[in-house]
Amino acid sequence: MSSDEVRAAADPLAGTEPVPGVAKPDPILKASGIKRRFGGLTAVNVDHLEVQRGTITALIGPNGAGKSTLFNLLSGFDQPDEGQWSFNDHQLRRLRGHQVARLGMVRTFQLTKALTRLSVLDNMLLAAPGQTGEGFLGAFWRPGWKAQEKANLAQAESLLERFKLIAKRDDMAGSLSGGQRKLLEMARALMVNPSLLMVDEPMAGVNPALVQSLLGHITALRDDGVSVVFVEHDMDVIMGISDWIVVLAQGQVIAEGRPADIRSNKQVVDAYLGAQHDEPAAAAGSEEES
Amino acid sequence: MDLLQILAEAFRSAIAPTAAFYALAAIGLNMHFGYTGLLNFGQVGFMLVGAYGVAISVNTFGLPLPVGFLVGVLCAVVLALLLGIPTLRLRADYLSICTIAVAEVLRLLYRAQFAAPLTGGVYGLQGFARSFYDVNPFPRGSYGLLGVNFTHQALWVMVVGWGLVGVACAISWMLVHSPWGRVLKGIREDEDAVRSLGKNVFAYKMQSLVLGGVFGALAGGVWMLAQQTVTPELFMPQVTFYLWAMLLLGGAGRTFGPVLGAIIMWFLLSIFDGLLRGAAAEGLLPFLSNSDVGALRHAFVGLALLLLIIYRPQGIIGKREEMLVNVK
């Protein structure tokens, strides 16, 4: 965790109180009063939440806490019953998924969505924004989009290089392993040049060797100035790379703070382990400390 | 039983005007299903509005034939919008249910009594193709083509029909080899992923539906030129299913798949028909009356399709590696 120490000097969140709904010095994403009901069940009920620019923010919580629902709401893939939220001071209410993505807030999915019967390279090229050849009429005029295609190709190849997928560039995306698909999905999202990347369970179903490389990519992104919000279950991962952690339980933000604050937060331990957290929790806790 | 004769007849069917307009409509279906993943089970509805667009404009309103084609195309655009606006935001199955129903509703609507002043009702419309044959560049007579003869009229329809097939293929090829086509193929694989990358999935699906529908309408127009008469009973739902069979036979998602599928399908239908009739004439099939042959040949084509799906699921010119990919 040497990079943590280096950044500690210029911690953008220095002096931010670890209380739910706290205001951040430079928020990239702000949400207030977000409510989403499914019939009688209120799946998400977030009073206020801000995400600091240039940090890795983890969204954690027990199963059914509403993490993925909140993710869908923020990224425009679902609409809340109430609430206001903004990204880079753009109001996002009533914007659809693709409009949110165009503003620079790009998400990935819990179940990886590689475009299986397209080549890895086509997966990448597809994501490039603002292509003139993407219009119905523009598509016919090849000289009009050739140059742009070439520039996108260069960007795609350098990203594939960085994510160690360059050898697979001409393979069908469907022939990749689960972990490689995760890498491809992340690389593809970067083709959009996002300023905020929303990653839903990046480590699910990925072998331990790839976990390290994925973690490296996420921290590298932050160091490049991209803000990252991610949902994850693996506590080691969360504690290792997050700058800030937001804990959801039953649709509400019950705690937020730095990893150290969260680890010692009694409410979080209660939410995760419920009533039966006496012996096994103590054991697990001491293990984590060591 | 003259095998050579049967083969010649099969060849005739494979390049006849019928094969041309089926190929054209199947190219439209390929745009929908092969590239965008839209399940359109009502392609015949697009053919119907195209055909009637031509016939009504010329007969009822006295417009010139090219304007009639334009009207047919516009009708297809309107139909695509009507079908697409409510269904394309929903899951794929809703479009398929709507298309199959709307195609059948359209047929009943066009044959209804109250529509008769416009559509001719059950009797349909005739004589609208006269100006087309007036400009036939081929002098009256019979033309031999690789051992089969066509009338000058059939030849003229074939030139126009296959010409349109060529244009449609060229348009499809250019589009699917562009960034536009790449987005379309992405939508076929997973529309949420494409949406998350900032593409307006609904607009792309709509464009695809309109374009494929326009190809269907043109096919309907060519059909009417060949037929010189239009009646609602031509546009039965099975036309759509023939188109699907042709598309899957040739290979969905390939530019020439639907064209090859249409040619081979008509070749096979004709050859089974010839063989069965030949065998029946020689008394080899005593249990088979002449009228059963038509039904049985479809059973044989069905069997051929079944074997194809089992042993070559990607179609004749489909990419095998695309089928083998682990599609989740």
Could you characterize what this model shows?
The complex is a heterodimer of chains A (290) and B (328). Chain A is an alpha/beta fold. Helices cover 38% and strands 21% of the residues of chain A. In chain A, the strands form two sheets. Chain A has a six-stranded mixed sheet, with helices on both faces. In chain A, helix 4 runs parallel beside helix 6 and helix 5 crosses helix 6. Chain B has one domain (3-323): ABC transporter involved in vitamin B12 uptake, BtuC. Chain B has helices at residues 3-15, 17-36, 43-59, 65-87, 92-111, 116-119, 130-134, 152-176, 179-189, 191-196, 201-227, 238-250, 257-281, 290-311, 320-324; strands at residues 125-126, 142-145, 148-151, 229-230. In chain B, strand 2 and strand 3 form a beta hairpin. In chain B, helix 2 (17-36) packs across helix 9 (179-189), helix 3 (43-59) packs across helix 11 and helix 8 (152-176) packs antiparallel against helix 11 (201-227). Chain B starts with a helix and ends with a helix. At the A-B interface, helix 3, helix 4, helix 5 and helix 6 of A face helix 9, helix 10 and helix 11 of B.
Task: Walk across the major sheet of chain B and give the strand order.
Answer: 1-4
Morphology call of chain B: globular
At the third CATH level, what is the topology name of the largest domain in chain A? Rossmann fold
- The H-level CATH homologous superfamily of the largest domain in chain A, spelled out, is P-loop containing nucleotide triphosphate hydrolases
CATH top-level class of the largest domain in chain A: Alpha Beta
